[in-house]
Amino acid sequence: MEILDISTSAGNGVATVRARVQPRGAAESFELWYNFEGLDKPLDGVNEAVAAALVVPCMAEGEPLSMPGRVSPIFLANVAKAQRLLTGWYDDLHPVRVRCPAHDGVARHRPQGVICCFSAGVDSWYSLLKHERRVTHLLFVRGFDIGLDNDVLWRTARSNAEAVATQLGKRLVTCETNLRDVADKSRGQWGKTFTGDFWGERLHGAAIASVALMLRRMIGELILPATHTYTQLLPWGTSPLLDPLWSDGYVKITHDGCEKDRVAKVRSLAASDIALATLRVCYVNTPEINCGRCEKCLRTVMTLKLCRALERAKTFPRPVPLAELRGMIIPSHLRHHYVALREEARRIGDMEMLATTEILLGERRSAVQASARLRRAMRGTVFGQVLRTVKQAWRTATVSPINAHRYGGPGGATDSDWKARRSSVADHKG
Ligand SMILES: [Zn+2]
Predict the structure, then answer these.
(1) Whole-structure pTM value
(2) What's the gap in Å between 296 CA and the centre of ligand 1?
(3) pLDDT per position as a tens digit, 91-101
(4) Ligand 1: distance of its center to the CA of 121 in Å?
């Protein structure tokens, strides 16, 4: 892959970086772009930033990365280490050379600024509050979890981030970028298309670093909030092992928060009204801050409930019935979260949530599951036969017009009758 040129420009409060990228064997080049707002110093370190964004996709393709300008020797040495780690983790990534005309100098001193990657989620709120005294800037990115096509969510989420920055006395830096669109191999813009979670497992830490490295005149450290605890660590796109290796020597990269699990982090942020008023955990790209229906939203609702903070969490307005929580299907790789919830429910004596987590973990049957099991057990017995006869008689006697076509009982309309009625209604709508 050859980076043909990298340009920067600024105007109307927006600083822009554009890189023209030519993948090997591709008929056409593409553009990688970033638009920043809220800067108090000009951008710098763009060569390292573009290299950080594209070296992992190059590893997936097995092609070297050629840069048009110099990069820091610390960055080159770190990227070599990052590649060794990633190739040890993933068989489908291969070490590649990063070619550049000459090495840049070495940082003499780092600015005092500290930027915290901030999505308003549980992990970033925990790290922000933990390091509140030394954090000077918040970094909020569009194009990673908030899609470039989702204006409604971006406006609301950005407005919330501005309110947080104002209340805590921090400077908000926003970046809109198509980095994920062009570098996430699962999206198949060029070369081989990856079928798994390329972004989550391999790329997103390097992508966040790519954005932050361009801020090296403003900041000397990026705090990157952890997803996993030390006991949950596994090969993943951000990790305490991997993240520091995207540093260029100017910006230190700190993977933060592995010491606490998600329940402990929610308990910590539950003391902050503004955290509860802006908490955004949902990964579904909808116009809402939190959809309130996906697994992560429902899991967070359970955690907030255990932390006695659900009523104050304004971004989860929908009451979630217990039956809905108990009907969730838990992906196996998220099981540890529910084990932590079960232990918290047991610790505080919340028997309702204890039962819910035990049902979700398959350690206890729900009322619906128990009833189904009883019906299956009675199927071959005389009592079961009597029960079925009574049930059938009741259905026949009480069948309603709306259900008649389903049961097909005496006096009920047939399917064709109901189809005729529907078409008749449809005719009158016009
Ligand atoms: Zn959701």
Answers:
(1) 0.83
(2) 6
(3) 999 999 999 98
(4) 12
